[in-house]
Amino acid sequence: MGFDIYNLKYSYASNFSISDINIHFDEGITAVIGPNGAGKSTMIKCIANIYKSSGDIYYNDEKIHRSNKHFFEEKVSYLPQSSQSDAAITVFEAVLLGLMNSLTFHVSTAQLKAVNAILELFELEPLARRRIFELSGGQLQMVLLAQAIIKNPEILILDEPLNNLDVHRQFSLLNQTAKLSQRKKMVTIIVMHDINLAARYADYIVTMDNGRLYSQGAPNEVITNEMLKDIYKIESNIRMSSRGYPIAEFVGIAINS
User: Is the pLDDT reported for residue 72 higher than 80?
Assistant: First the structure.
């Protein structure tokens, strides 16, 4: 059971490509990490069917054809790396639009309750009547996450969702996403730059370099001095936290990097 990617391949006209991607995503959080230009965002856009790539996708052992728009619209929510909006709609209305596939001219009491619940979950109630164009980048990011989650996706794909967020909102986003992933048994895939936050929150970590998978596994298997030296070109010391996840202390740039 789960979400499986086999032999994923994609090429840009610029000659950059990703290839030989084989990953099993299970319930819970999978963090995708790697240096800039490693192919992380390209890979998840292929998985979300934003880019037309080759390879096979299976969900719960059933092959998913890329022409299956219903699957990607109903079961997958994708939050892009950066978003901006000059829309005049309110925060409440923006989150309500996340239910677009089930909305009619009459908004039900259940739908209104769902919006209020998700606004409370992400500490957005004070912004409910604000216009989208009035929000800061971090506030907008949280609103778009709420919009992505409200339709109860089975697969949630987030591309660097911590961009523009202060420390409090980074922890709030990851805490709530982890709880939702567990409670709703969601497959959650998050592209992240912060290695220590990835180690703290992810059940599984995938590392990429130069368009290929470098390693994948539990955080304590993946976050190693060797990996950090090989793909990030930095020296580090790894220690284990009291909760059992690795913490990387970055010492400096690796010699001969």
Answer: yes
